[in-house]
Amino acid sequence: MSFNTFGHLLRVTTWGESHGPAIGCVVDGCPPGIPLEAADIQAELDRRRPGQSRHTTQRREPDEVRIVSGVFADSAGRQVTTGTPISLIIDNVDQRSKDYGDIATKFRPGHADFSYLAKYGVRDYRGGGRSSARETAMRVAAGAIARKVIAGVTVRGALVQMGPHAVDRSRWDWAEVDRNPFFCPDPIAAAAWEGYLDSVRKAGSSAGAIIEVVADGVPAGWGAPLYGKLDQELASAMMSINAVKGVEIGDGFAAAALTGEANADEMRAGNDGQPIFLSNHAGGIVGGIATGQPIVVRFAVKPTSSILQPRRTIDTAGQETEIVTKGRHDPCVGIRAVPVGEAMMALVLADQKLIHRGQVGRDGPVMATFGGDGLGEH
Predict the structure, then answer these.
(1) Fewer CB near the last or first residue (10 Å), C or N of the chain?
(2) Rounded mean pLDDT of the chain?
């Protein structure tokens, strides 16, 4: 059991290391007939690509993706999915493995160096191998395919807190996310983060972050009531992202401070017979099943473990020493985690769509309106 695969009906397996010749993934279970070009995937990868500002790692990777299986030209000449495994590959072109020579026998505190060696008896010290954030490029590539499976559902992410500095939600503007290097929906917070992160980087340190991902247009009914809860699947997916240390759905931990009446998402009747919710403390999921409201997930990313500040550690011989990690590292890895979180949301939702369709024979709710006989849409 290697656990490099996730998903149920839509299954994704990633492979490759940070300083290996390439990274890649296989997406299995994608329905046939979906138009898919490399450019569709590249657009998402470009949002995550390193070296696009001084606030991310200066590793220069074009992240140019190639589709090597699972697509074919249909009768209209469009390249579409065939229903067979889709293989994607990205060449690594800007490795600097020599940067890691000094730490080959030392464990970086906060990094996976010790735990990988404890499990496997061998570790790739060049950038962390599989524990590197480089692996997440393939999640973004797979997520681009998932977005096509859930056409009609909008998945958007934003960085809502950097270090101790949070956005002002009264200034939230989704359009701002694409106007600054932080995926920040608050222009004033984004401007303040510039100076904050510059000071963190100059000090040879790093900062953590909180990312919020929202999915609009998810039909009521996706998910399962007990061991396959939609929020359970989302929490697992987000926790699988390197450096993530916490996940919450809707109000999350803040719900513990509310009263029952304050936490309840009250409902009124809409003109179409569907409920209108007066709030969304639940984050669009109740009893493990989507309510039709926006699905809201937040996850916390720890500060980058590879820093220039000297830290106490031990080496592989068990001797006490100090370590300074040279090389090119993100002062806040949470910035580029935004498109990764979006990808994981899309992958889970695409998987859930296929599961729901397999169980009830349709994508949306069994009943179009309340008062129906429950046997179909009316």
Answers:
(1) N
(2) 90
